[in-house]
């Protein structure tokens, strides 16, 4: 689901998505997953050895050129609304 959402963002704003980084709390995994992309190039996700704090929320950072925050938030909300009842972990 995350890949589909990121694909949509890249299709809409690819050249202006300069960098996307994140630490994800993925259901069924005890360790965080790191993601990193530069424009249209995404590197394979990396499972990190552990969390650095008690905070286990997923976090994403977008570095963009003239992409309104609302575009990112609204597309994410639309995708989250299509998830099964259990929803994402964080």
CATH superfamily: CobW-like, C-terminal domain
Order of helices and strands: HEEEEEH
Number of helices: 2
Total number of domains: 1
Describe the biggest sheet?
Answer: 5 strands, antiparallel
Which fold name fills CATH's third level, the topology?
A: Hypothetical Protein Yjia, Chain: A,domain 2
Distance between the termini: 14 Å
Kindly provide the radius of gyration, computed on alpha-carbon positions and rounded to a whole number of angstroms: 13 Å
The helicity comes to: 25-40%
Which of globular, elongated, flat, extended, rod-shaped describes the shape?
globular
Low-confidence stretches: none
Description:
This protein has about 90 residues and is α+β, with helices and mostly antiparallel strands. It has two helices and five strands. Strands 1, 2, 3, 4 and 5 form a five-stranded antiparallel sheet that branches. The longest helix is centred in the C-terminal third of the chain and has 13 residues, at about 70-80.
Topology, element by element:
Layout (H helix, E strand, L loop, with lengths): L1 H12 L3 E8 L8 E6 L2 E2 L3 E2 L11 E6 L4 H13 L9
Antiparallel strand pairs: 1-2, 1-5, 2-3, 2-4
Tell me briefly what this model is:
The protein has 90 residues and is α+β, with helices and mostly antiparallel strands. 28% of the residues lie in helices and 27% in strands. Strands 1, 2, 3, 4 and 5 form a 5-stranded antiparallel sheet that branches.
């Amino acid at each position: 689901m995350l890949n589909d959402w990121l694909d949509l963002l890249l299709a809409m704003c690819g050249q202006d998505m300069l960098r996307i980084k994140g630490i994800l709390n993925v259901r069924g995994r005890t360790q965080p997953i790191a993601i990193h992309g530069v424009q249209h190039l995404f590197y394979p996700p990396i499972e990190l050895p552990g969390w650095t704090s008690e905070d286990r929320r997923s976090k994403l950072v977008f570095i963009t050129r003239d992409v309104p925050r609302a575009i990112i938030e609204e597309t994410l909300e639309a995708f989250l609304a299509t998830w099964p009842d259990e929803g994402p972990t964080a």
